[in-house]
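Following up on my earlier thread - several people asked me to post the actual chain instead of describing it. Fair enough. Here it is, all 381 residues.
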Amino acid sequence: MSGKQIYFLVNMTTSFEERILRGMARFARAQNPRWRLRWGAKLDEDISKDCNGIVMFAVNPDALALVRDCGLPVVATSTRHLKDGFPCVVTDDQAIGELAATHFRERFYRSFAYLGPDNVAFGVARQQAFARALTPEPVRVLHLREGVALEVRLRDLRRDLERLPPQTAVFCANDVFARMVLTVLEHSARKVPGDLSVMGVDADELVGLSCPVDLTSIDSAPERIGERAIELLGRMIDRPGHVPADRVERVRPAGVVEGSSTDALATEDALVERAGQLIRQHAFDRDYSIDQLARDTGCSRRSLEVRFSEVTDMGISRHIWKLRMDRAKELLLTTPRTLTEIAEAAGFSSAYHLCEKFKKETGITPGRFRKKKSEAKMDLG
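Reply from S.P.:
Thanks for posting it. Predicted structure:
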């Protein structure tokens, strides 16, 4: 590909947009000759004449009309534009919802709630995926009242949060909603973590720094969105008409960035809580045995296994096994690591052992799992 002039049309308001830009800039810089990348919140005739293509993020209707009129190749990076007739590279909201459910399940939560926008595509998709992954457990959907003062909305949200059962896991559509939850609970009798567990999405560093509790968040991989968007745009510039206008590529999340807002198991049993913490610390260490776990908790192995099973409805071996399997799946989907490297990182004795256990658990090999999920990222409808 020859050098190109790319314009990123964006109102830079959060670190999510900045991270998309970083991914675009990284890709542009690696090209030979290097691509020129500009960005801004306005699109005018001079900009249109000076660039070969546009990447846009969540633009308003007036800006969208200008984009349509400019006649340039365009790639969108927001779910807001899924129906606007442009190829899109966006977050994999189903994977995000599933990852949140897995994180809470591993901590034995059985009561769940969700907070997010109910009129925005990514919010609806994340809520639905979260609920499906937790079936048959119900998910309480919290709402922010429209048409009232912010003070009233926050007061009502605090009331709804305080009415949740103890040990409820609250999944929020993004970090801004999670910060809202943590802020209204700051002076509440409900404590985080402990009474409630809270998770956001985007791993927004600035939002996280403004939270009263260290926030657990799913990294939605915006840099990768930027890389894929500008790469796709380059192909559209070189081969006009080659990319379908309804093409949607969904970028899987990079994983969970853990904070203290989910650092508790859904149990009041101090022994099981301590055992759960140790298991999370050592789950991927092949040399850490249940006998060692029992010694570290000051309890006999038999007593610990019985107590753990009674409280969590899951044996210790099964819990460790599930943590390792979930870790292997995450690495298969979010990294290019080999099976040998993944087996070692997830606590399996070998790639053969991983393949054997993985197929028994899922019905397919790790390689086929990775391929199927990779193919599923491409939604051409």
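The chain has a mean pLDDT of 89. That should answer part of your original question.
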